[in-house]
């Protein structure tokens, strides 16, 4: 450490810091609260995300057992069981366990609820599973045989969901078949949050139409075996419709499910922290400006410049430390509340509604506390350096404003930062995250704030020549002559307004685009969805029955199945439907399909995730083979973030051999009552499928979709509101401090005959002018930043695009509210200042 | 062995931005225990001279030594150390920190030099008694009159036994009666400490306490 950066004498630093805070405790509280709010939000969001993810990961591991590797079917239809002996004989494989894995429902009549209880039904070969995934084997409490074909073993979650006890009978429905079992035992080692049922594999294949098929093979490798070599050997034996998945792949896949959503939320929380940082900067700048003569005295009495810098930064660090400590405590409480109210994914709907146990993470708490302290330190650094650079002899004699109105603020630093922000926005995603997009947002924000002195002067310049009443003229001249001070007051409001505007434009654009999309994809009168139809659905006979129902004018059947294209990615959804080109919302150009090729239409996320475009060809792992398809076009899909492929009905059947369908879009005949039609359709489905059938009208579906949208953005709205409140508190604190620092100026004005009311008018005018400038700058900057969110962050995070929509009425209200709040705050702060004795004010030294 | 002069200024020159020359070839020596008053018209450069002597401003030419230690060519940090250890200040506007107690204000030069806090405060209590405010170490500046504040400033200027005290219009904000008492106190305390005192003033009454009265003009300092 050089001598210049030697710390200040401890006693002097302590006296100065404690003395300042004792004299102005509100400033300490506001600064600490600003940091606390940011840290609390960041920590809470992180804690909820990590807890939910850990729970989700636990759930995945529970279903998978503890296998070293897994072979998973590309589709729920599974792969041929003849693969199993080939894998078991592969060098390096110590043991292999064949598994049937299908979605099953405990029927509503047995659960006693309105809806059937879904669970994962595993069919295991007990002897082989014992060597690979022993946690999945159930043992009867009486140590009777686990091979009883009538026996079923449930996890505690499944038992609870089905409202059953040991020894009860339970009816499970899967693959259009219902079968009853006796609950013979509990899966003790599968945790409490996953509904799993285990039966004998032969029974599962025989009873649920899976003969000759497996959905996965769990593998334990031989000890000391080279893992890469074993994986290569296994991969060489795999058919096209099976994928080798390692635990790392599984984790990456589950992580990718919500990664972008989590990162976006954490970034939003950081935005609140950043806004808090601007508030600390405002507070510190004003505090330093007010105490300029005090610091000058310390310099004259022998405090070195470096030590003065350290002392002021130390003040900021202590504010940060207090705020961070408070933030961690509040954050934990918020996380607890959020999990209780919104669920583990904060309403995002990505991780399901499993039971979530909130765990305090000390390392994460430390990281967020350090971020809070770092923001506070960074916010104090600029004022600290300014204070150390000030000439003590001059500062000692200038207790008030030392701004020289002739000095023109430079516009180039702001422009350079804005330009860098623009360049960063053009960058590609890093690790599939829009990190450069976030950097662009931060640079644009910094550029906007840095340009404020220049902008404030530029906006006020045309008003300089107006003939205005004295109070307004004084207010104008003050802001025009001291744009740096105006900028300090403005930075908090500009930061929070611009971020709020950016988010509001993005959310409004997203919501509007989703609404339009829903109208496009839901043209029919009634929709039918068969829940859990991965392994079965409506066979051709059932389809014909439904089509013949009186009141049905036209019915289109669809089939949706998950299709695993890559081991480390979430499965995409493969859809077969009649005439896709006419019924899906295509964007961009479509390419004529070469003769003899199969047309496929991919959703936007496929373009980003699999680097595909119209005119390309791709292979689909279906029916044990790689099926080439030609990409004819791209369609907009807001429902499946991880990609969807649509084929024409006949192509889907030809490639998969699957003639069943899982959805139907129904146009009603004129005069048909949809409710009566739904009842008639349900009757024709029969009791087994009817229990899994869900009917809805487009109006309901739109309402549900938009309510899910609003729920998933609820946390966003809350964070926006907090950012605005922080910004307004910043304005209040800044005005209050600036007004008090100008007590002497007001005393002088009172001496020369300016009435108290006129000073109040002057201050209100200053506040209103600042509010207007802040709103103009915040709106312009916010709309600019929204374009980064819409065209960079969203496509790179969620892989979909949207059309910009600006919520003008909201912004008009926001502008009016902020301007009024700024004027009101300034006038309120002024009341205190002008109430001081005019003579004492003029004589006051500090 | 004789003590070095409290202050030695040799061939000092200073111009203000814009080129106007304030003074050049300025010489001044202040012996330990000597009181020198500097007078002159407003804007002639009295305060600038004081700032140069304090190491708060840089001269165009010439040398300055305080208690035998040259300020010239030293970096700001090193000049700060000399100022901290060897110079005391009394200002027209008192400059007492409002949120520190009177004892803390007085002890500030010692704690800035990293002296023991308890010892510094004990010495500040003694100094308070010396300037006529016994038992008020725990009071805050807001409870004091202008004259009392300047007593605190004098105590602060002397607490670390400086070689040189620089006083810029120390009675400028005080009524004549209070000013007289403050000047008397300053003289007594300075004589007792054997520090040199440079007093910049417009007041003949204030100048009357000096051993020498010099007038600052463009050609330097001349005896009145």
From TrEMBL, chain A:
Keyword line: Cell membrane, Membrane, Transmembrane, Transmembrane helix
Pfam family, one: MacB_PCD
Source organism superkingdom: Bacteria
Membrane topology: Multi-pass membrane protein
Primary localization class, coarse: membrane
Family annotation (PANTHER family): BLL1001 PROTEIN, MEMBRANE COMPONENT OF PREDICTED ABC SUPERFAMILY METABOLITE UPTAKE TRANSPORTER
Listed name of the protein: Permease
UniProtKB/TrEMBL annotation, chain B:
GO CC terms: plasma membrane
SMART domains registered for this protein in UniProt: AAA (SM00382)
Superkingdom of the organism of origin: Bacteria
SUPFAM superfamilies found in the cross-reference section: P-loop containing nucleoside triphosphate hydrolases
Domain ABC transporter residues, every copy: 7-224
Keyword ATP-binding belongs to the record: yes
PANTHER family the record matches: IMPORT ATP-BINDING PROTEIN
Name this protein carries in UniProt: ABC transporter ATP-binding protein
């Amino acid at each position: 450490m050089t001598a210049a950066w030697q710390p200040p004498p401890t006693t002097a630093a302590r006296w100065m810091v404690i003395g300042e805070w004792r004299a102005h405790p509100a400033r300490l509280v506001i600064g600490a609260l600003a940091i606390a709010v940011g840290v609390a939000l960041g920590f809470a969001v992180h804690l909820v995300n990590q807890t939910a993810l850990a729970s989700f990961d636990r759930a995945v591991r529970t279903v998978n057992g503890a296998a070293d590797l897994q072979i998973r079917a590309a589709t729920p239809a599974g792969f041929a069981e003849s693969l199993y002996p080939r894998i078991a004989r592969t060098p390096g494989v110590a043991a292999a366990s064949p598994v049937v894995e299908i979605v099953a429902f405990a029927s509503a009549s047995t659960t006693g609820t309105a809806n059937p209880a879904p669970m994962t039904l595993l069919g295991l070969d007990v002897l082989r599973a014992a060597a690979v995934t022993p946690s999945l084997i159930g043992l009867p409490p009486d140590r009777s045989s686990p091979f009883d074909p009538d026996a079923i073993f449930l996890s505690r979650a499944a038992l609870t969901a089905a409202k059953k006890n040991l020894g009860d009978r339970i009816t499970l429905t899967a693959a259009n078949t219902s079968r009853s079992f006796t609950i013979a035992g509990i899966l003790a080692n599968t945790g409490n949050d996953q509904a799993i049922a285990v039966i004998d594999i032969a029974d599962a294949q025989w009873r649920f139409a899976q003969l000759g098929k497996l959905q996965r093979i769990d593998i334990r490798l031989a000890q000391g075996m080279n893992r890469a070599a074993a994986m290569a050997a296994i991969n060489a034996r795999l058919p096209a419709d099976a994928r080798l998945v390692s635990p790392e792949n599984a984790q990456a896949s589950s992580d990718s499910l919500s990664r972008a959503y989590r990162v976006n939320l954490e970034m939003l929380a950081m935005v609140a922290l950043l806004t808090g940082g601007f508030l600390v900067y405002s507070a510190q700048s004003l505090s330093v400006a007010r105490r300029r003569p005090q610091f000058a005295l310390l310099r004259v009495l022998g405090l070195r410049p470096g030590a003065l810098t350290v002392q002021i930064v130390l003040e900021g660090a202590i504010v940060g430390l207090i705020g961070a400590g408070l933030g961690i405590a509040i954050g934990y409480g918020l996380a607890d509340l959020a999990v209780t109210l919104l669920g583990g994914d904060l309403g995002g709907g990505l991780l399901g509604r499993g039971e979530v146990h909130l765990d305090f993470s000390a390392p994460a708490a430390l990281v967020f506390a350090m971020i809070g302290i770092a923001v506070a330190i960074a916010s104090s650094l600029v004022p600290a350096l300014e204070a150390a650079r000030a000439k003590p002899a001059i500062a000692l004699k200038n207790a008030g404003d030392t701004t020289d109105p002739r000095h023109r603020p430079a516009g180039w630093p702001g422009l350079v930062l804005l330009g860098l922000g623009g360049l960063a926005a053009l960058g590609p995603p890093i690790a599939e995250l829009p990190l450069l997009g976030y950097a662009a947002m931060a640079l644009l924000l910094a550029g906007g704030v840095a340009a404020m002195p220049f902008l404030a002067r530029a906006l006020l310049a045309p008003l300089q020549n107006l003939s205005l009443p004295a109070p307004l003229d004084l207010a104008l001249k003050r802001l025009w002559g001291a744009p740096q001070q105006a900028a300090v007051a403005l930075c908090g409001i500009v930061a929070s307004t611009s971020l709020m505007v950016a988010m509001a434009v993005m959310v409004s654009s997203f919501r509007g685009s989703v609404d339009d999309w829903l109208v496009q994809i839901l043209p029919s009168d009634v929709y039918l969805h068969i829940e859990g139809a991965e392994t079965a659905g409506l066979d051709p006979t059932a389809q014909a029955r439904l089509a013949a129902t009186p009141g049905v004018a036209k019915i289109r059947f669809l089939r949706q199945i998950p299709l695993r294209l890559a081991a480390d990615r979430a499965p995409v959804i493969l859809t077969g439907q009649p005439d896709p080109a006419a019924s899906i919302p295509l964007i961009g150009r479509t390419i004529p399909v070469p003769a003899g090729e199969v047309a496929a239409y991919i959703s936007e996320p496929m373009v980003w995730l699999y680097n595909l475009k119209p005119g390309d060809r791709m292979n689909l792992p279906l029916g044990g083979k790689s099926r080439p398809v030609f990409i004819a076009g791209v369609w907009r899909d807001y429902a499946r973030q991880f990609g969807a492929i649509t084929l024409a009905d006949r192509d889907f059947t030809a490639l998969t051999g699957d003639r069943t369908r899982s959805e139907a879009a129904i146009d009603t005949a004129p005069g048909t009552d949809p409710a009566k039609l739904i009842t008639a359709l349900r009757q024709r489905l029969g009791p087994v499928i009817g229990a899994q059938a869900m009917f809805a009208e487009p109006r309901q579906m739109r309402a549900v979709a938009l309510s899910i949208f609003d729920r998933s953005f609820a946390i966003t709205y809350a964070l926006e509101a907090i950012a605005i409140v922080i910004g307004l508190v910043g304005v209040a604190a800044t005005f209050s401090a600036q007004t008090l620092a100008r007590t002497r100026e007001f005393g002088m004005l009172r001496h020369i005959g300016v009435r108290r009311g006129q000073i109040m008018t002057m201050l209100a005018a200053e506040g209103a002018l600042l509010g207007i400038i802040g709103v103009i700058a915040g709106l312009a900057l916010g709309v600019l930043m929204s374009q980064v969110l819409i065209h960079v962050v969203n496509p790179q995070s969620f892989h979909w695009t949207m059309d910009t929509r600006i919520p003008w009425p909201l912004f008009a209200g926001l502008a009016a509210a902020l301007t009024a709040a700024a004027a009101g705050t300034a006038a309120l702060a002024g009341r205190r200042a002008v109430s001081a004795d005019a003579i004492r004010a003029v004589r006051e030294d500090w | 062995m004789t003590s070095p002069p409290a202050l030695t200024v040799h061939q000092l020159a200073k111009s203000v931005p814009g080129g106007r020359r304030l003074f050049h070839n300025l010489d001044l020596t202040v012996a330990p225990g000597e009181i020198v008053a500097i007078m002159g018209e407003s804007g002639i450069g009295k305060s600038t001279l004081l700032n140069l002597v304090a190491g708060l401003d840089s001269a165009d030419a010439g040398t300055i030594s305080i208690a035998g230690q040259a300020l010239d060519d030293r970096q700001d940090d090193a000049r700060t150390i000399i100022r901290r250890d060897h110079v005391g200040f009394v200002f027209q506007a008192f400059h007492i920190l409002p949120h520190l107690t009177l004892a803390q204000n007085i002890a500030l030069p010692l704690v800035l030099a990293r002296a023991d806090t308890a010892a510094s405060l004990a010495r500040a209590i003694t100094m308070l008694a010396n300037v006529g405010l016994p038992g008020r170490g725990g009071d805050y500046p807001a409870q004091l009159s202008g004259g009392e504040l300047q007593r605190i400033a004098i105590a602060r200027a002397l607490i670390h036994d400086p070689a040189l005290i620089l006083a810029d219009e120390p009675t400028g904000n005080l009524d004549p009666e209070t000013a007289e008492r403050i000047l008397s106190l300053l003289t007594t305390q300075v004589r007792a400490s054997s520090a040199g005192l440079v007093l910049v003033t417009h007041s003949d009454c204030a100048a009357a306490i000096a051993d020498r009265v010099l007038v600052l003009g463009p050609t330097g300092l001349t005896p009145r």
